[in-house]
Specification:
Blueprint (H helix, E strand, L loop, with lengths): L2 H22 L7 E3 L2 E3 L9 H6 L7 H9 L1
Antiparallel strand pairs: 1-2
Bound molecules: zinc ion.
Length: 71
């Protein structure tokens, strides 16, 4: 095994960890749209327009995102 193989193994391990972390944080959650408005995947309330403008990829309201980040 040479240094390239070792580097590839390390990259794979890091990628798997990153995917697992993203899944645990719900980053693969599919946004919910009802009547064209995006809803929080956790509490089902409308995500405020200002949050969508600030974070277009957001799938949770600020309160639920903070709860998730603290857990
Ligand atoms: Zn919420």
């Amino acid at each position: 095994m040479d240094i390239i193989d070792l580097a590839q193994q390390h990259e794979l391990m890091l990628r798997e960890q990153a995917v697992a972390t993203a899944r645990a944080r719900g980053m693969d959650a599919v946004p919910v749209y009802i009547n064209g408005r995006k809803r929080c995947v956790s509490c089902n309330r409308l995500i405020p327009l200002k949050r969508i403008q600030a974070r277009p990829d957001a799938v949770r309201c600020v309160a639920c995102e903070e709860k998730l980040e603290k857990s």
